[in-house]
């Protein structure tokens, strides 16, 4: 039986970074994966495929340049699902090679199979036809989550599907009901609308992406409607079924019945109301670790569970459940497990990137939070239509808002929507992390023409308003 310093369960972003960190510390490390592919949801069903699909949709429909070239920049008249999936498959294949190469170069043992704890330090790995036992001093549980799939919904991966099933569609549908206006629902609803699919989005709350600054989420809802998406806000789906539809010929449609009694019909339905844990089947009771009703593990600030030698990171520990945060959690968990100090960790400066159409990103506080906390601030706003690069790109709708402390002029939050928002936000994040003020943007020269000029314009705008206070 082989013994390791640490065994990691799951090759998603948390597991990958944990494994490499352990190897860099000179530890013997094995990583276990139950699927027949590397990379977890990040590479295979979540982040990478959805972002590749978005890029393909923007390119093939010409939507990215629509402001300047109207319909003329459409790269392909009839877009098929194959066109959309092709780029995604290439990126995924490349990512598998990158991860495999990193494991090989760093001496990480990759074991294919499903991990199950048989005792506090003993793991059974059930492979395809064979099984093996390994022991380790420490463990990192980074097994991720799966889409929530209530038993009363007739999922068939053809007409009714989760975000995993959407990637296996054989054709681009004419219409789609999207249930859930969280990040997955809004990203896919806006991507599908860009592709010309008639989308109805049903969300139980009255605001999409409620954690965003309300000016941004309000503007985003406006743009969604402009793209033709029907938003059914404050409505809950009660029942989902397939029904016969007679319109000359007989076809089958999906029908969603809302609590309000409304019935919606479409060719397809994407169910995106959150994710469910998978650690329940891992034998954690043999180690003395408990989990909640959504199979999430509780950890302390070092990602240590209630059993000292078992750490957990990534989606399995719940919020914020992002690839970006999972990577850092995995690295930090392993560093702590082996007594390595990794310094400060400013969780207040996590950025959020929403890859919808248009793209949205934020870091720091929203206007609503600052008002509630009684922090005096001013908002400096720049619109892409007054930024030369925004004009060149043909993005007439983008904006960047910087929240500036009224007295110290420190940056308290950055909220951005439009081309490049998810990249642009990091400039603000750096200035915030280094305790900078709005004057930084005035007193430094930026490349021109760039979207980064929006920071300068927003700083001028905010400071000018403050000059009158
Ligand atoms: C549609 C979609 C889009 C997303 N977009 C973004 C985005 O744009 N940006 C972002 O930051 N995040 C995004 N996310 C979230 C991101 O994908 C997850 O936060 C991230 O993948 C979680 O990483 P993880 O390492 O915790 O787990 P996962 O990536 O879920 O990996 C867990 C791995 O563990 C394996 N495993 C589970 N149980 C066992 C077992 N018993 N034995 C062996 N192996 C096991 C699984 O097979 C899996 O490969 C998106 C998610 C979805 C679904
Ligand atoms: N760009 C990104 O960072 C990104 C992209 C996609 C996914 N993710 C991650 O994936 C995870 C899952 O995302 P998600 O969107 O599935 O979950 P979510 O929990 O973020 O959103 C689910 C939404 O569905 C609504 N809802 C629940 N039941 C409903 C019903 N019966 N009828 C109508 N609406 C209902 C909820 O009010 C909520 O707004 C999140 O943790 C997210 O962080 C991140």
From TrEMBL:
The gene it comes from is sthA
Q: Where in the cell is it found?
A: Cytoplasm
Asked whether the keyword NAD is assigned, the reply is yes
Q: Where is the FAD/NAD(P)-binding domain?
A: 4-330
What EC number(s) are associated with this protein in UniProt? 1.6.1.1
Provide the organism lineage as a comma list: Bacteria, Pseudomonadati, Planctomycetota, Phycisphaerae, Phycisphaerales
Q: What is this protein called?
A: Soluble pyridine nucleotide transhydrogenase
Family note? Belongs to the class-I pyridine nucleotide-disulfide oxidoreductase family.
Q: Tell me which residues make up the Pyridine nucleotide-disulphide oxidoreductase dimerisation domain.
A: 351-458
Molecular function (GO) terms for this protein are: dihydrolipoyl dehydrogenase (NADH) activity; flavin adenine dinucleotide binding; NAD(P)+ transhydrogenase (Si-specific) activity
Q: Record the organism.
A: Phycisphaera mikurensis (strain NBRC 102666 / KCTC 22515 / FYK2301M01)
